[in-house]
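Ticket 4471: requesting a sanity check on a complex prediction with fructose -6-phosphate. Repro inputs:
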Amino acid sequence: EKGGYDYFMLKEIAEQPKAVADTLLGRIDASGSLTLDEVRIPVSVLREVDKVVIVACGTAYHAGMIAKYAIEHWTRVPCETELASEFRYRDPILDSRTLVIAVSQSGETMDTLMALRHAREQGAKVLAICNTNGSTIPRESDAVLYTHAGPEVAVASTKAFLTQLVACYLVALYLGQVRGTKWGDEIGTVIEELSEIGNEVEEVLGTMEPVRELARSLADKNTVLFLGRHVGYPVALEGALKLKELAYMHAEGFAAGELKHGPIALIEQDVPVVVVVPSPRGRSVLHDKIVSNIQEIRARGARTIVIAERGDETVHPYADHLIEIPRTPTLLQPLVATVPLQVFACELATARGNEVDQPRNLAKSVTVE
Ligand code: F6R
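Returned structure tokens:
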């Protein structure tokens, strides 16, 4: 049942190109428009939405953080992403023009369920992004967009995360489409790129041997830090979460712009720091700022592990280890940048003798608070 892999996690990492393609299937028509008929919230309601709030936990929350960048950019509707466990105890401001998106692989996470119940009581419309057919969260929502990752057995979420991202992009683009925002042309291009992204994920998977080797070489470290900016920031958080839960190491993700506000004090000789570098095209200002961050931490002794777009030579002089990923539009980069971090965490866990599919103290579905 593990299909020749030692662990479900390895199998599920390898299944990601298909999971991503399956989640797109039937949702982009021949003319390149989105057809999300299954989102039963009427277009007239979606046009009136004046605020989007995303609620989720753990890895699903990281997908939601990335969705915020996409939704605000493509739709110009204000969007907040919040931990479900914080949201529902905070007396949030919601009304009938608020669209709440609940992201959950299992569809059974108690905090996310309670958050959506609270939102519906306040009159908000709730759209679930979920992987498990007929589970509680989609049953209690106004509408559901299923991710088609297939069953995810390993406790650590991998293919579900990538498909959550795809579903979030689809919702963001669909909102942009029905609202006719000024990014019309860009939306068309992104839809095209998104429909090809499975191939890029496949390409990344084919280049992971050096990442595994690097992971093994770090097995006796105590700490790994992760830096990112813009959509690379949630990717850094996700890389750190994977490492905590699988390798039981101290791992922390930071927004690179925050370095000087504290985290840089953690940089000492030989501490591994993974840096997710945005594309040098697009938001090039951010790219250049991150390259300076890499220089700064390296000057203080950090061992830099740099994830950057293929052909981005500006990072080469400062990368102790370079992990190249394919070119993608900035907002879609998490789909390819996360994959090496999953492989990295899985290999480190194995090297440390940990049980990859069943990390200690964790459950696949958290149905208690
Ligand atoms: C991490 C992980 C957890 C889940 C979180 C939410 O690898 O799997 O952080 O993402 O418990 O679970 P769902 O998506 O089922 O609501």
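Notes from triage: The beta strands are 51-56, 79-83, 98-104, 125-130, 143-146, 223-228, 250-255, 272-276, 303-309, 321-325. Leaving this open until the requester confirms.
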